Every structure is written in structure tokens, then in C-alpha cells.
Amino acid sequence: MSASILLSVLFVAVTDVALQLDNAIAITSVAASVPRSQRIFVLAGGVLLAAICLFTFTLVGTTLIEKLAWLKPVAGLALILIGGHLLLGWFRS
Known about the structure:
Order of helices and strands: HHH
Number of helices: 3
Number of domains: 1
Number of strands: 0
Structural class: mainly alpha
Radius of gyration: 17 Å
Distance between the termini: 43 Å
């Protein structure tokens, strides 16, 4: 395997972990507001729903990017704009 492929896999893995941590925080905050006896069901359902959404959106996104060549630069531009907006908000606060 070349170094660029390994680096790409590493970036995807780090991004995936960051997104899953975000999901974990959201799911636990919702579970904290339900009675103790129902928390395990809320946690399990939230994790299952997050995994299904991650798989589905990844599959749809990669399929669209493969079929629509113009979508990759548009998605890249959207990421740059969102990142710039977040950085400006962080520096202003």
C-alpha cells in the first residue's frame, strides 16, 4: 500500500471517530432526560440509528460523487466555506 492511501485511510478514520464522539454526546444527553429504566433502550436505539445513518449517507454520498463528477469540487467548496465560517465565528468569540 502506498503512503497516500494509508494517509487517506488515517484521515477517514480520525474523521469517523470525531463524528462518532459527537453522536455519543448527543445520544447520552438525550438518554439523561429519560427515566433510568429506559436509558439502555434510548442509548441502544441512538447508537443503532447513528450507525444506520452513517452507513446510508456514506453509501449515497460516495455513489453520487462517483456518478456526478462535478459534485466533488462543489462539495470541496462547501467544506471550505463551512470551515471558514466556523473559524471566523471562533475568532470573533
